[in-house]
Structure formats: structure tokens, C-alpha cells
Amino acid sequence: MKNLYIYITLLVITGLQIVQAQCYPDRHSTNWFDGWVSCQPSPNPISSYGETHWIMYDLGYDYVLNETQFWNANEPKHLDYGINEFNIDYSLDGATWDNLGIFNIEQASGSSTYQGMEGPNFNATMARYVLITPTSNFGGECFGFSELKISITDPFIVVKEEDGYNASAYPNPFVDTVSLRIVSLSQTEPLDFSLYDIMGRTITAGSITISEDNQNYQLPINGHNLSVGIYILKTNQNGKEKSFKLIKRKQ
Hints:
The protein is mainly β. Helix content is 0%, strand content 48%. It contains no helices and 19 strands. The strands form 5 sheets. Strands 1, 4, 7, 8, 9, 10, 11 and 12 form an 8-stranded antiparallel β-sheet that branches. Strands 16-15-18-19 form a 4-stranded antiparallel β-sheet, with no helix packed on it. It has a 3-stranded antiparallel β-sheet with strand order 13-14-17, with no helix packed on it. β2 and β3 (17-19) form a beta hairpin.
């Protein structure tokens, strides 16, 4: 299973300059603007929490979340802003939330070599939204932390039961050949495919035997015999169909 990482950082954009939190892969700077700071409570996305300090992340996709790494507020004059106890909640739709738990994070060192600490493990939880709600800090007037890293599973290999399989066609546009990347819940049923031209005429059709140790399958399509234009590729496994618009381009 392939793991990826989401680095959740805050960027400060001034004119044409972009300032990022990390100068080194696992360190965090001591600049006050490299992170999140909240000095005024506001209505929490979870209404039962009331008005709190909070930050919510929209990851833009339903990911399978795993290990985390936290970097607390690391500006030397405001280490007391750093969060201490906090709730983590997660959601698929931003409306219905589940609580991962209440956790604690150590105060940052204020050093440019600060490398944060290991955070909680989501244990392969699927979510798009992550909500951090601190309930205490180290005595400062404001609440903040610098950065959060979440280990994720490659989202393509996470197949929903109702979908049956994930598929993508590449390259697109194509010149000579077309391949399918396929991840299926069923390793016993073949996946059928058909390629049509824009008039709905069948160019080629066939089936693919799914293998557990292979995700990429080249289709029997000779692009040299096809005119430049738009084609429709349809796939079907166990009655579940997906369609792709393919563009044949000139060499």
C-alpha cells in the first residue's frame, strides 16, 4: 500500500514573495507568521462546541488518513500561544462529524531546528475535512500551532463499495496507445471495455483479466489507424460502468 503525505502549511503572500513554513523537510522556522494563530473565538463548525478557537482543513478529496506529525507554535516570544490540549474531529461532508479524540502536544522549543512531535493516528479513517479545536494552551492570549503533516493512502486505491472499481485512462490526449489504470474490489470478474468514435460506432472491444499485482493494462488500440478527434471509452465490470472521453492528437 503506497503512502503519500499531506503537508498542511500556511503561506503568507506579499507581492511576489511566498513565505513557507518549512526551510527543511522536518524542521520549522521561528517566524511568527509561519503558522496559524487565533486570538478571537468564533462559532465552531460543530455547533455543540460553541464559540472556540479552531481551524478546519478541506483536503479537497476523500482520503484515507493515517499517522500525523504536529509542529507547535515556534516563535520564541510566543511559545505560550502553542496549543496544549485539543480535539480532532473529521468529516466526509463538512456537516456530520466524528471525534477522533482529545490529545496533547508539547510546547515548541523556539529553535530553528525544531522538528515537532508525533501526533495521533487516524488508523485508516476516510475523511475530507479535519477540524482542530484547542481547549488549552501554554498560557498565552492567543492559540496557535505551526504545521500539520498527515500520512495518506493513495486515494486511487481506495475503492468505494458502490463503485466496485476505480479506473483512469492515460495518456489523454494520446497518439499511439491507450492504457487503463484499474483497481477493483473483484479479482475474479473481467472488466469489459469498448472504444467508440464520436458517431457511436465501435472501434474495438474486449475484456481485461484483473490481476492483484498489476494496476496498468494497455488496450489493443493502434492510434496510427485512428483519425484525430474525440473518442469515448466505456468500461464495465459487474454492471458498473464508467466512461472516458479520449482525444486522439497528431504526432
